[in-house]
Amino acid sequence: MKKLCLLLTVLLISSAVFAQSYNGKGDKKINFGYEFYGYGNGVSATFDYGISDLFSVGLGGAYYFSNDDNNYFFFARTAIHLGELFDFNQRFDIYPGVDIGYLQRNDIGFGGYLGFRFFFTEKIGIFAEFGNTGKAGLSFTF
After folding, report:
1. How far apart are CA 5 and CA 11, in angstroms?
2. Which residues, in sequence order, are bridge partners of residue 42?
3. Is 14 helix (H, G, I), strand (E, B) or coil?
4. CA distances for 67 relative to 64, 122, 123, angstroms
5. What domain range is 123 assigned to?
6. How far apart, in whole angstroms, are the C-alpha atoms of residue 40 and residue 75?
7. What is the rounded CA–CA span in Å between residue 142 and residue 129?
8. Structure confidence by residue, pLDDT tens digits, 110-137
9. Which residue from 45, 51, 74, 125 could staple onto 139, CB 3.0 to 4.6 Å apart?
10. Range of weakest confidence among 20-24, 59-63, 78-82, 88-92
11. pLDDT at position 11, please?
């Protein structure tokens, strides 16, 4: 049992050594999170694709539920990844961005955000984004 625990610990630490929060062009991330804003809370999912060392584009969706109204939001987004630019730890990234999309009430939604991402292993991390709404959850690389 001790050998198994030691082996699992070594594997976890070695995978964390190679973890990177943003890999540049061709990077693919999926985020699943809990979202909160002034009119209710919700769940969201986003997909981001790296188009260069600094920029990513993506798509997302959110479903907000409250006592008065349930709404959904489908959007496109883009971000600038500052981790490499400012020589942060490779497992950590800061990324300001914007999103624009369609709200259920026939409205156009537009907003900015500041995001943070930290990877524990090569494939699994956490994220938080703050702007028009706030969200936090899990991030996966594939």
Report:
1. 10
2. 35, 64
3. helix
4. 10, 40, 36
5. 2-141
6. 18
7. 20
8. 989 999 999 999 899 999 999 988 999 9
9. 125
10. 20-24
11. 39
- 3-class DSSP state of 9: helix
- Distant-in-sequence, close-in-space partners of 107: CB < 8 Å, separation ≥ 6: none
Determine phi and psi for 111, rounding to 5 degrees.
-165, 160
Residue type, 24: G
Q: Write the single-letter amino acid at 98.
A: V
Kindly state the DSSP code that residue 39 receives in the 8-state scheme.
T
What's the length of the chain? Answer: 142
Q: How many whole angstroms separate alpha carbon 51 and alpha carbon 99?
A: 16
Q: Which single residue is written with the structure tokens 């991402």?
A: 117
**Residue 23 confidence (pLDDT):** 64
Residue 57's identity, in one-letter code, is V
Tally of domains in the chain: 1
CATH code, domain with 81: 2.40.160.20
